Amino acid sequence: MSQPEVVKSLSQVKQKEMIGRNYDLITSGTVKVSSTFVPGNLNELLMCFDIANNLPEINAIQNAMRKKSGEMIAEAERSGHSEDVCTYVKADIGMMAKGNIAPNGKPFPDPDVLLLSYTGCFTFMKWFELLREQYKCPTAMLHVPYAADGQPTKNMRDYIVKQLREDVIPVLEKVSGVKFDIDRLREYLRKSAIAENDLVWMLESSKHKPSPVDCYFGGVYYMGPIFTAFRGTDEAIEYYRLLRAEIEERIANGLCAQSPDGDMPEENYRLVVEGPPNWTSFRDFWRMFSEAGAVVVASSYTNVGGVYDYDGFRHDPGHPLETLADYCLGVYTNRNLPTRVDMLARNLVEYDADGLLINSIKSCNSFSAGQLVMMREIEKLTGKPGAFIETDLVDPRYFSAANVKNRLESYFQMIDQKRRAGGTPPATGA
Amino acid sequence: MTTRPVGEIVAACEAIFEDLSFAKAREWKAAVPGRKVIGYMPVYVPREIIHAAGMLPLGILGGGADMEVIHGDAFYQSYICRIPRSTIEMAINGKLDFVDGMMFPSICDVIRNLSGIWKLLFKDKYVRYFDAPQNFREEVGGVFYANEMRELRDGLANLAGRAVSDDDIRRSIAVYNENRRWVNRVYDFRADFPWKAPSAEVYLLMRAGMVLPPEEHTLLMQEYLAAAEAANRPMRDNCRVVLTGAFCEQPPLNLIKSLEMSGCYIVDDDLMLVSRWLLTDVPTEGDPIDNLSRAFLLHSAETAAKYEADAARKGSYLIDSVRKRKADGVIFAAPSFCDPALLDKPMIISRIEPLGIPYIHIQYAENSSQMQPIREQSGTFADSIKLWSAS
């Protein structure tokens, strides 16, 4: 049976073009290439040196969505990597062993530099130590301290700025042969802030009923440009303008959020989700929600690269290096558990959600360790029910569709029952 | 000093090890009103600063092999290691109720997030996540680290209700220098005469140092060394191995015993690295915080929780240990789901393989009970070394 043709909006078409062009640039052999991570991604800084930005996490996601990550992980495990560790790392290492082919079908070049922004995830450090074994290229390490007491301190910020100034920038200058120009950085940061304003508007649009967007499954597409290779570009500004216009139109027309099969006919449940999605069965996973009329109105994962909608952060061209430090320090997984609890509890209230769903990821201790306590705390704070499912990022062995579906159905029944008992009224307020 | 027989000393250490209510630390606290106890987890905290504040640093290394974990399992998913769940269990069961504060060093995301759980559950306690620098330049990471230690000092001073002076810290540095010297002497002695200082005994002796005040622990090590030297014990035809990867969640005591019983003398390890983290004496002159910072940056152990800026030096700490201790091979012993140890292992293997250093890998949890497969594996390893090794 043929799949129904998906009609893409202008913003979707634009994003696809942007991503395709970036892969073409990376694989063209004409530019210097950096590998770096999504959380605390320093795209504006890399652009100052004309260095293209390749993100191994995104490559792992691309491979998972194309059903290729399973064999890559198996390859890495055959070469001695433990079954217990992060599957992003293993998908990346397995991809190298299998020819390191980019989504455009061309081989990835070896990176010229590894920009190890060690932000909110211990595994990042080991991951790039492992890649350095393979590529033997310079590594610029940026250690971002953990904001353990809720607020970053001056000491943390000064430490990051000093590393940028004395370690990271000199390495990037040397690799690229381009002299650092702080005014060029300021200009990129100015553009970042413009796109970030529209991104936040998009995130908050789900306060409408029905929500015009899904901020988890849809959200991973919407956040793509800001968290990858485009923040600081005119293209990103244009993308978020287009997206905003489309969402405004959806609100005007009273449309529910999009699903893999088009617009959802109705909105029955409004959820806040904590944790990354599963990528190997992404669309099946999404359908388990959309077929029940469940929309995700806010998620922690849309903050994975950086947090804009909690304490008002925007990149500040007036303080270029300091603002990069603040951005890294504010990454969701770099915030302590009480802050994460506060963020999610606030989302539940402000977005008038029915409950919190935690998708706990086997691979990701940074997100997952402590989530059961977070769930209990949030239930206590809000009185709204929580539910817990377990999957993985890119390892297909850890996605059990039947189990996940059962848990979700039970959860939706729980919400229904709570409503019947006089709790939260049905989500649809259209 | 009258020296007790070695068995008696070890029995005393074992009693401390088995006592998860930490009676010794409770006694220390109760002896003088106002005393405070600060718990810390692996892999390293500057205990000198806690000591300088007049407090007892108490190493919290999980619940061990025998403690039943009921509540703790409700806090963690099945794919997360055991040490945080047994630590939570101890806290909920009141075993840590006398502990006034907890320190969580930057070793991995699980221990990091445990600091947040502590903040959520035990709001009346002092909680400090202790971030050590991954940049090892004095003017960059060193400045950051010294300021972190000053914050720690001020936080503890606040808890103690009195200032912590530079002289206080200098005195504590001297105490820990002395303690570390004796730890190293015990390790040297074991490497030279492994049949006289079985690893299970050395382990228990070092575990006692996680609970006792350092001055007392130093005396205990002196007593043990004298007794062990005097004891007449048979030398076995064992091979010599370095145990690595066990720097956080501890293996069951039976695992350590099993390795030796199967024919492997452990001549070096990374268990309880906190007692040997700094590789040289810390100067007692000058700014004590800067001295601690420099010691960390320039003279500290290599482990998976640290970034190695120079790829060429990756694994050198282990290789040096193999050479210095004249080891025949390496046993990688990692706790299940331990990201640092398990992610580091392939890189370390790639360094020791070309040197022809034999190795095996075992995985454990602190409550692993089936030792027979491990005994068979390590026994075969020992046999293969003895039969086929070039040495």
Descriptive notes:
The complex is a heterodimer of chains A (430) and B (391). Chain A has 430 residues and is α/β, with parallel strands linked by helices. In chain A, strands 2-1-3-4 form a 4-stranded parallel sheet, sandwiched between helices. Chain A has a 4-stranded parallel sheet with strand order 8-7-9-10, with helices on both faces. In chain A, helix 1 runs antiparallel to helix 11, helix 3 crosses helix 5 and helix 12 runs parallel beside helix 17. Chain A is globular. In chain A, 57% of the residues are buried. By secondary structure, chain B is α/β, with parallel strands linked by helices. Helices cover 48% and strands 11% of the residues of chain B. The longest helix of chain B is centred in the middle third of the chain and has 27 residues. The radius of gyration of chain B is 20 Å and the shape is globular. The termini of chain B are far apart. The mean pLDDT of chain B is 96. The interface between A and B is large, with 55 and 55 residues.
In short:
The complex is a heterodimer of chains A (about 425) and B (about 400). Chain A has 17 helices and ten strands.
Reconstruct the topology from this structure.
The complex is a heterodimer of chains A (430) and B (391).
Chain A: H1 10-26, E1 32-36, H2 43-47, E2 51-54, H3 56-65, H4 69-78, H5 87-97, E3 113-118, H6 122-135, E4 139-143, H7 154-176, H8 182-204, H9 219-222, H10 224-227, H11 234-252, E5 258-259, E6 262-263, E7 269-274, H12 282-290, E8 294-299, H13 320-329, H14 337-350, E9 355-361, H15 365-368, H16 371-382, E10 386-391, H17 401-420
Parallel strand pairs in A: 1-2, 1-3, 3-4, 7-8, 7-9, 9-10
Antiparallel strand pairs in A: 5-6
Helix pairs in contact in A: 1-11, 3-5, 4-5, 7-13, 8-11, 12-17, 14-16
Chain B: H1 6-18, H2 23-31, E1 37-40, H3 47-52, E2 56-59, H4 83-92, E3 101-105, H5 109-121, E4 126-130, H6 138-160, H7 166-192, H8 199-208, H9 214-230, E5 239-244, H10 253-261, E6 264-269, H11 288-298, H12 316-324, E7 329-335, H13 339-352, E8 359-364, H14 372-388
Parallel strand pairs in B: 1-2, 1-3, 3-4, 5-6, 5-7, 7-8
Helix pairs in contact in B: 1-8, 6-11, 7-9, 10-14
